[in-house]
Write a structure and sequence with these properties.
It is a single chain. By secondary structure, the protein is mostly beta strands. It has one domain (about 10-85). It is built from one helix and five strands; from the N terminus they run βαββββ. A five-stranded antiparallel β-sheet has the order 1-2-3-4-5, with no helix packed on it. A hairpin with a 2-residue loop joins strand 2 (about 30-35) and strand 3. It is globular and about 45 Å long.
């Protein structure tokens, strides 16, 4: 089956998130999340990418813009989650 883009939110189960990631505001792979009322469990984190860009103020700094997480669930579904940074 070819890849299919589905623009729908996933809802991570907070207890399944890394406490360090939550405290520092960084992304991590949720161990469990809900999507379309399904309880999904993480089998493997496959890839993680970040997109950065120049600061809008023009001071030359770079800021994280988006964070992608690609993961496989225990039912073999491969999903990619994107979230804006910050």
């Amino acid at each position: 089956m070819p890849d299919q883009f589905v623009s729908e939110p996933i809802v991570p189960v907070k207890a399944s998130m890394s406490a360090t990631s939550v405290a520092t505001g960084t992304s991590s792979f949720p161990k469990r999340f809900f999507w379309r009322d399904r309880d999904c469990k993480l089998d493997a984190g496959l890839d993680e990418r970040k997109e950065s860009g120049r600061a809008r103020e023009g001071d030359g700094e770079r800021h994280l813009r988006k964070h992608w997480l690609r993961m496989k669930t225990t039912d073999a579904t491969v999903t990619q989650s994107t979230r804006p940074a910050g």
